[in-house]
Q: What sequence folds into this?
């Protein structure tokens, strides 16, 4: 409708570099875990690093993981994508489950960022038979006609009038009378 | 855009010229049909703001047929804006003055009163009889069918048709048809 | 941790984290914050535009981890040493040697090998493979068209785009920072070369197919190349085929005397339909009709089957390479051009 809310840009669903057509690549390049070793706001992240991190790295060898312990700082997840985009998630006071969910979200995103989708689909071949034009399904007999033409002016559907029905009944009668009587 | 895409766009959105013969037709019925062609509603690519309307050339508007006693009863109101400027014109009077106006007003009033109306009306070309300028007739490539059949007058029936027609009753043989003086 | 130090660090890094309790008080922002920020901004402007910092200059960077992940991300097994070589450009070695000489070291010894040989290997392989694959995708396309499509795929612009989106940008060692189009493109070729050395030609072929050839998925081949004078070309082809010369006929038209007129022209050879096209004037429509006819002959119409990116020319069923005729010798039978 309008682009007044420019904090949320608009776009169509697209895959970066035809991802998936050939092989699928995880778009997340680097993940940096910044946390404090003893401040309570980093507790969730510390728990994640203790229990989940090694499994995560084994499952995703294509993502480089950096762990940055920094004292007296709020915990922080920095995701860098293949297209150069950077996303920072502030994890202050997150629970272990929340950190896990955010990590899995960052892993599955394409680096495009949040975009309001105008259409939920995309296709490179919108039409197989070709786009419509006024010449599609046009009767070529019209090319031979001199306008105005009386036959082309007639209505397509003409209801049978009562007179015509009567004439039909009459002719049917005549036909039956004319038939030789079979005895 | 490549040349083919440009040409395809041009072709899909061309404006077509249609012809409509208004002889013996009800202008209000015809208006419903014609305004659809002017709006572009007959096309699958229609969009209200996409300006997909076509041209319509109407001929024989002098010979339109209003239903019932509308010729005598239908009145067109006009006010000049000045005091005492109200006028009421009968349909037959208006038709005498300008034989295209009854049909034109019928089409105009059958459209929604939005800003597209004047653009659509500019694409309507009405002629009172079959004399259309050659340049415009050359543009026409399609004919719109009439909504009604033109009724056949009694004197248009040929003698054979009259004889062949089934008779329900007939005058007795010795009946004398008297001429009215 | 001092509030001022926080301010300075945040302005250098570009982040906007001014939440320290020493800056914000119950009465608002401290008096010294605004003047400090203004001074820092003034000094930054005086320096002029600076290039963005190299990712490898950050504290959180590990070359070995990055190289390992690069290979794993692309689902490929690389020989570590070969991959390192692939990212090292000649210009970087030259620059390093020069800077070492400036520092006073007389015989600079860098244990680095550049990627020249890998680039050459990669380029030759890519040219051959892409030519082969495109030829399989478009069996009836003339030679000029195939060449144009291959050149389109092997352009520096295209390869640089692919290279950037694979993640080579941060790993490249070269004198130009940030890396230019040419450097990115040659890095991709070097990576292909490294892959040939590490995993073999078949794997390298699949890599080229999945990253370079798939860029054709959204492209119409006729946008990349089309014959210049379609009607003359079509006439020549018909003659060579032994068929009647094409005859253009008007099929449809609208609004002849208006500026928005459209004409549809069909091209026929001995009453057999070849193709149709429509345009603003009869001449344009005629050329488009001829072009449409050529597209039908080359089997590159709008509704052609989408390209298959699952073929493996190095696999089990290796098809013999197809010979493509030049447009000046093209025949429908396409045998012995």
A:
């Amino acid at each position: 409708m309008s682009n007044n809310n420019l904090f949320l840009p608009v776009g169509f669903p697209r895959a970066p570099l035809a991802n998936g057509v050939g092989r699928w690549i995880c778009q997340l390049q680097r993940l940096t875990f910044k946390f404090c070793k003893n401040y309570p706001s980093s507790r969730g992240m510390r728990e994640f690093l203790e229990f989940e991190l090694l499994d995560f790295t084994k499952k995703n060898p294509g993502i480089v993981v950096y762990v940055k312990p920094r004292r007296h700082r709020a915990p922080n997840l920095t995701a860098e994508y293949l297209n150069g985009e950077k996303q920072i998630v502030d994890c202050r006071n997150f629970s272990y489950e929340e950190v896990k969910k955010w990590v899995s979200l960052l892993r599955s995103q394409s680096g495009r960022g949040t975009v309001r989708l105008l259409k939920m689909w995309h296709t490179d071949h919108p039409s197989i038979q070709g786009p419509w034009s006024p010449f599609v399904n046009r009767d070529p007999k019209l090319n031979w006609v001199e306008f105005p033409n009386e036959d082309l002016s007639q209505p397509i559907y003409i209801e049978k009038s009562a007179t015509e029905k009567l004439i039909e009944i009459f002719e049917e009668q005549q036909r039956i009378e004319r038939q030789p009587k079979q005895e | 855009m490549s040349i083919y895409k440009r040409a395809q766009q041009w072709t899909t959105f061309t404006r077509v010229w249609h012809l409509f013969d208004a002889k013996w037709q009800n202008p209000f019925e015809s208006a419903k049909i014609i305004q659809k062609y002017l709006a572009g509603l007959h096309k699958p690519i229609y969009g209200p703001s996409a300006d997909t309307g076509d041209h319509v050339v109407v001929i024989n508007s002098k010979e339109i047929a209003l239903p019932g006693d509308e010729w005598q009863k239908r009145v067109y109101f006009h006010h000049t804006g000045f005091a005492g400027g109200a006028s009421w014109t009968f349909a037959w009077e208006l038709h005498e003055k300008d034989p295209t106006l009854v049909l034109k007003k019928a089409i105009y009033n059958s459209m929604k009163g939005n800003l597209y109306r004047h653009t659509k009306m500019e694409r309507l070309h009405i002629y009172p009889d079959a004399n259309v300028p050659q340049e415009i007739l050359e543009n026409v490539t399609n004919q719109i069918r009439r909504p009604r059949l033109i009724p056949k007058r009694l004197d248009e029936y040929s003698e054979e048709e009259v004889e062949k027609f089934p008779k329900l009753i007939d005058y007795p043989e010795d009946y004398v048809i008297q001429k009215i003086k | 941790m001092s509030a001022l130090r926080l301010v300075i660090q945040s302005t250098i890094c570009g982040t906007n984290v001014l939440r320290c309790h020493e800056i914000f008080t119950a009465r608002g922002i401290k008096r010294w914050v605004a003047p400090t920020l203004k001074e820092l901004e003034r000094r930054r402007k005086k320096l002029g535009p600076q290039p963005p910092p190299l990712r490898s200059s950050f504290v959180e960077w590990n070359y070995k981890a990055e190289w390992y992940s690069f290979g794993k991300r692309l689902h490929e097994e690389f020989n570590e040493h070969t991959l390192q070589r692939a990212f090292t450009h000649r210009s970087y070695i030259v620059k390093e040697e020069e800077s070492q000489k400036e520092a006073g070291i007389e015989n600079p010894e860098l244990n680095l090998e550049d990627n020249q040989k890998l680039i050459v290997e990669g380029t030759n392989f890519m040219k051959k493979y892409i030519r082969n694959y495109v030829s399989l995708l478009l069996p009836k396309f003339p030679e000029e068209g195939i060449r144009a499509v291959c050149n389109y795929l092997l352009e520096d612009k295209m390869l640089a785009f692919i290279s950037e989106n694979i993640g080579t940008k941060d790993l490249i060692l070269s004198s130009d920072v940030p890396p230019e189009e040419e450097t990115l493109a040659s890095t991709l070729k070097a990576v292909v070369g490294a892959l040939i050395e590490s995993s073999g030609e078949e794997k390298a072929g699949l890599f080229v197919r999945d990253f370079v050839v798939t860029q054709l998925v959204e492209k119409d081949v006729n946008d990349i190349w089309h014959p210049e004078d379609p009607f003359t070309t079509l006439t020549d082809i018909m003659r060579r085929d032994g068929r009647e010369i094409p005859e253009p006929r008007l099929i449809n038209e609208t609004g002849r005397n208006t500026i928005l007129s459209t004409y549809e022209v069909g091209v026929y050879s001995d009453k057999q339909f070849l193709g149709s096209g429509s345009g603003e004037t009869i001449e344009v429509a005629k050329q488009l009709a001829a072009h449409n006819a050529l597209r039908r002959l080359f089997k590159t119409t709008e509704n052609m089957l989408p390209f298959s990116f699952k073929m493996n020319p190095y696999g089990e069923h290796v098809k013999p390479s197809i010979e493509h005729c030049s447009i000046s010798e093209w025949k429908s039978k396409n045998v012995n051009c």
